[in-house]
Write a structure and sequence with these properties.
Length: about 300
């Protein structure tokens, strides 16, 4: 295995809750109230829809995709959801530093250095460029045994909710996340920072029509069936763990332009659709609040 080269699960599609649109010659992020499943191919109009998107819409008989039935590729919560504090270069989208909240690996001109870091971006001297950054890997459908869809986010709400669900379900099921029938669910909330307008984040719940005990029973049945067929989930988890640990940064150079466009819309002055809940605290004066609100409305 090539050292320094992070081996991630094979990605066959993307999941987003926003899109990038072109206005006045600029590509700008736009929030959305539904999931969008795309391929990894872009054209002039943006990301090309994945066939699974229309199939799920037809299956749910809905006009908007707000739930997605999924399975997880791994039993270990930390393999399904990769989350760190990351400092990005705002122009290229390239991660220059990555931290677990205790230690930070930072790119220098010619090397990588490991330093002790602040416990959160709020205490970091690179605060404006540092975000929590999560990648959730899920399986959709049965067409690909190993391939996954990826959901990237810098939303505190999504990362915190997904991390909690994964750990709780792992504990409740005896570590059988990979065989639990689950679904991604889009939820909304409003905060003072969002001016009481809805912001959306992603949750992971038991599939509709099932209770937690039902899901645990199904997970045990499916796990026993897999073992009888010779499927070694523990070995798969270990292979993924070694692959993730083989390098420091998981995004490839090919992914970086899309990351920069999706999460760092600097020229537009707008907030990325995935980080609508990460806006800075609003100024205290009424005049400043009204001016900021007018700017957002415009």
């Amino acid at each position: 295995m090539l050292k320094g080269f992070t081996i991630t699960p094979p990605i066959v599609g993307r999941i987003s809750i926003g899109r990038v649109v072109e206005r006045n010659g600029k590509r700008l992020p736009e929030k959305d109230d539904q999931f969008t499943l795309t391929t990894q191919v872009q054209n002039h109009d943006g990301w090309i829809l994945h066939p699974a998107h229309e199939a799920l819409l037809k299956q749910s008989q809905a006009t908007k995709l707000r739930t997605i039935p999924v399975m997880l590729p791994f039993n270990d919560p930390d393999l399904n959801l990769r989350a760190e504090y990351v400092q990005f270069n705002r122009e290229t989208g390239r991660p220059v530093a990555i931290s677990d909240g205790l230690t930070c690996q930072r790119r220098t001109g010619t090397d990588m250095e490991t330093i002790t870091c602040a416990a959160s971006p709020d205490c970091c001297r690179h605060q404006s460029d540092t975000k929590p950054y999560g990648r959730l890997y899920v399986k959709i459908g049965e067409e690909d045994d190993i391939g996954v869809f990826i959901f990237r986010t810098t939303s505190y709400n999504s990362i915190r909710t997904l991390a909690a669900r994964l750990r709780y379900y792992a504990a409740a099921s005896g570590g059988l996340l990979a065989t639990m029938p689950l679904e991604l669910k889009l939820r909304g909330k409003s905060t003072t920072q969002s001016y009481r307008t809805p912001i959306f984040y992603v949750d992971l719940v038991i599939r509709d029509g099932m209770t937690l005990p039902d899901a645990i029973q199904e997970a045990r049945r499916a796990d026993a069936e897999r073992q009888a067929q010779g499927f070694d989930q523990a070995a798969l988890d270990e292979a993924a763990r070694l692959g993730f640990g083989n390098g420091s940064f998981e995004e490839t150079d090919e992914d970086l332009p899309a990351v920069a466009e999706e999460f760092f819309p600097e020229e537009s002055g707008k907030v990325s659709p995935h980080e609508a809940d990460l806006t800075q605290p609003q100024p205290r004066s009424l005049a400043a609040k009204l001016a900021a609100k007018a700017a957002v409305a415009a």
